Structures are given as structure tokens and as C-alpha cells.
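FORM 7B: Structural annotation worksheet

SECTION A. Query
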Amino acid sequence: MRIEDLKVGQTASVVKIRETGTHAPEALRLREMGFDEGVEIEVLHRGLIGGCPIALRVGSNVIALRKSAARLLDISLATPTIQAEAAE
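SECTION B. Predicted structure
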């Protein structure tokens, strides 16, 4: 799954960062910003023109990414916790 598939307000976990070929420098930059396997992210906002950039919450930081950088992240939807299920 990709970040582009998420709606504003949805959370997901990073499964993999694509680091092959010409993407290696950008993947390193993503890691330096706090993206890593297992990290939870939340989509906060999308730009008006083409949905770019995408504002994400990573830990206590808010980071804006271009779609090209966001496409290097493979994600999976965060599973709801037992407390959240009980509240419903």
C-alpha cells in the first residue's frame, strides 16, 4: 500500500523504504527525517494542486513530502487497538 491511498486522518505503519538504484539518496534522507520500518505515520493534509505536498505526522514531527518521496514508502494500515474497538 502507498501513502497516496490513505485519506486525511488515517494512520499507517511504514513497512519498507525502497532504497534501490537512484532512490538511495532520497531513501537515506527519509530515514534521517525519522521514517523507518515500524514507524507510525498519520496523513494530516494534502496540497491543493495534485495533492502535493503531503503533510505527515511522524512521531511528534510534521513533515511535508513530495509525492515522489512518499512513493518510496510501503505502508500498511495501522490496526485499531483493543481500547479503540471497545469505545465503538
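SECTION C. Observations
The longest strand covers residues 11-17. The chain has a mean pLDDT of 87.

SECTION D. Sign-off
Analyst initials: ____
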